[in-house]
Each structure stands twice: as structure tokens, then as C-alpha cells.
């Protein structure tokens, strides 16, 4: 049996999304922005965030390997689908659900730099600094969270719980020892 414990309420999330949207809008002023969501976990956050920003934006998605049946990150980040929107010379804002080890964020930043983006920034709703393995910069962070496994608001456990409006820590699951599955 798994137990969910409320970690961040819907109201707190929405206040935070508003704050992040205002910060991003102020930084980019009226410049065009290519907003790229890292699938799957970021899609709920991204959809709320872009609707609070008054900027000329394009939206695209990137899909990488991640873990959905395990509770540990993989050191082996792989790209399954890049963006279709041209990137050269654009300001790219990568939207992530959570930065844990930071390996995914580091990989994505390098990918867009190599694709010729003018600038690359990362916005993550959640940040778990205790587990960081890289020194990747995350320009916009919603909440710093302790080392717990979180679900809801786009984050899953075995593809479940993404639809929840609040974020919960999940308890009572057996750590499968970092078995990595591909989130495709
Ligand atoms: P990183 O490469 O930073 O270790 O991992 C980032 C990815 O790991 C996130 O996009 C997410 O898919 C997954 N992840 C890390 N921590 C959690 C967590 O607490 N809950 C969920 N559902 N996914 C997590």
C-alpha cells in the first residue's frame, strides 16, 4: 500500500507559478521566448506557467529517459525526441518538474547550447538540492524540497498521480534500487 502525504497545496503552487511567471516576464521583457517542456512531468506546470506570462512565446517539448518505476535517478540521460521548432538564435526557457541530481538539466542545457540557442535558462517547479550530482545552474526555482519522492501536479509514480492538483510525498513504496525505465 502507498500513502500520500500533502507536501505543497494547490494554492501554494499557484502563488508560486504566478511569482515565477512575473520574474520570467520581467527578465525577458517583450523578447520572443521558446518555452520547452521536458516530458512528461512538466506538462501541467508548463501549461499553467505560459498562461500567466504575457510574452510572445513558442512552445515545444523534449523527451528524455527518466525513471518512472524506480525512485532513483539514472546517470545515463538519453534524448528520445528533440524539439521540432528551430532553435538557432532563440532564447530558450526549459521547463522541468523537478531537478534532482541535475543530470537531466545539465544534459538539456548542453543540448540547446549545441543546437545554437542564443540563451538557455532553466525553470523548475521543484528543486531537491540534497541529491545534486552536478553544478548545473537553475535560474528559476519554485520550491526547494527535501529528499522525498513527490507526486502530483504532473509528477508521477508508475504513471499514476499526475492529475492531482496538489503535490504529495509518497510513502510506503519499496525503493526498487534505482531500476531505470524509459518514460516513453
Ligand atoms: P535528475 O536528472 O535531476 O536526477 O532527475 C530529474 C527527473 O527525475 C525529473 O524530471 C523527474 O522525472 C524525476 N524525479 C526526480 N525526483 C522525483 C520525485 O521526487 N518525484 C517524481 N515523480 N519524479 C522525480
Structure, briefly:
This protein is an alpha/beta fold and 184 residues long.
How do the strands and helices of this protein lay out in sequence?
Blueprint: E1 3-8, H1 10-28, E2 33-39, H2 43-50, E3 57-64, E4 79-81, E5 91-99, H3 103-114, E6 119-127, E7 140-144, E8 150-151, E9 167-171
Parallel strand pairs: 2-3, 2-5, 5-6, 6-7
Antiparallel strand pairs: 1-9, 3-4, 8-9
Helix pairs in contact: 1-2
The structure holds guanosine-5'-monophosphate (5GP).
Guanosine-5'-monophosphate binds at residues 38, 41, 66, 73, 96-105, 128, 149-151, 155-157.
Describe this structure in words.
- The protein has three helices and nine strands, in the order E-H-E-H-E-E-E-H-E-E-E-E.
- It has helices at 10-28, 43-50, 103-114; strands spanning 3-8, 33-39, 57-64, 79-81, 91-99, 119-127, 140-144, 150-151, 167-171.
- The protein has one domain: 3-Layer(aba) Sandwich (Rossmann fold).
- Helix 1 (10-28) crosses helix 2 (43-50).
- The chain has 184 residues and is an alpha/beta fold.
- Bound molecules: guanosine-5'-monophosphate.
- Guanosine-5'-monophosphate is lined by residues 38, 41, 66, 73, 96-105, 128, 149-151, 155-157.
Amino acid at each position: 500500500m502507498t500513502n500520500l502525504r500533502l507536501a505543497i497545496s494547490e494554492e501554494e503552487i499557484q502563488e508560486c507559478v504566478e511569482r515565477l511567471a512575473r520574474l520570467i516576464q520581467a527578465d525577458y521583457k517583450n523578447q520572443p521566448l521558446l518555452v520547452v517542456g521536458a516530458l512528461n512531468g512538466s506538462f501541467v506546470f508548463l501549461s499553467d506557467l505560459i498562461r500567466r506570462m504575457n510574452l510572445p512565446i513558442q512552445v515545444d517539448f523534449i523527451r528524455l529517459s527518466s525513471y518512472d518505476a524506480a525512485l532513483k535517478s539514472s546517470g545515463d540521460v538519453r534524448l528520445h525526441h528533440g524539439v521540432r521548432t528551430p532553435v538557432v538564435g532563440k532564447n530558450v526557457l526549459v521547463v522541468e518538474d523537478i531537478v534532482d541530481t541535475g543530470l537531466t538539466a545539465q544534459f538539456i542545457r548542453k543540448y540547446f547550447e549545441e543546437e545554437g540557442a542564443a540563451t538557455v535558462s532553466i525553470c523548475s517547479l521543484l528543486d531537491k538540492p540534497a541529491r545534486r550530482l552536478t553544478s548545473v545552474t537553475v535560474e528559476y526555482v519554485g520550491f526547494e524540497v527535501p529528499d522525498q519522492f513527490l507526486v502530483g501536479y504532473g509528477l508521477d509514480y508508475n504513471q499514476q498521480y499526475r492529475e492531482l492538483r496538489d503535490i504529495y510525498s509518497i510513502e510506503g513504496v519499496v525503493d526498487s534500487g534505482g531500476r531505470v525505465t524509459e518514460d516513453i
